[in-house]
Amino acid sequence: MRIIVVGGMNLDLLGMPTQRLLPGDSTPGKIVMRPGGVGRNIAARLRALGAHVTVAARRAESRAAAGGETVDMQGLADALPRADVVFNTVPAQLLNETLLRRARKDALLIELASPPYGMDLDAAKALGLRCLLESGVPGRYCPESAAQALLNYVERRCGHV
User: I want to staple 80 with a disulfide (CB 3.0 to 4.6 A). Which of 1, 65, 72, 102 is the partner?
Assistant: First the structure.
């Protein structure tokens, strides 16, 4: 299966207290930078599962951080006809009608970004493409476990809330 992940390679800035949080008081902490972004994370997880993933990103730094096979946004046009699945994580319209015409009719397009979305959803529908709008997947499909996972993370990083 050939998968394209569009965008989302950046640095995550994580702020973490170095001691227990006290309401109404300043808390010393540290800031850590690490590679991140929704697109990078999806690509890494899919590759770990054995999928053939191509990351499409605008900036050379983003493509380098993504690792593996990458293309710039111009190369995306050449990669689309070979993709079985396309994930978009960029909330600015990049996959316009011209690019969507290059997608295979049997490909699955999955929009993960927030509005205004990165795919022209109306054009995808008019072209007869299978396009799923899946913004906020964890909160919609498993809100309790998503909330619990977030709470567990905050407690691990910050101490008891």
Answer: 102
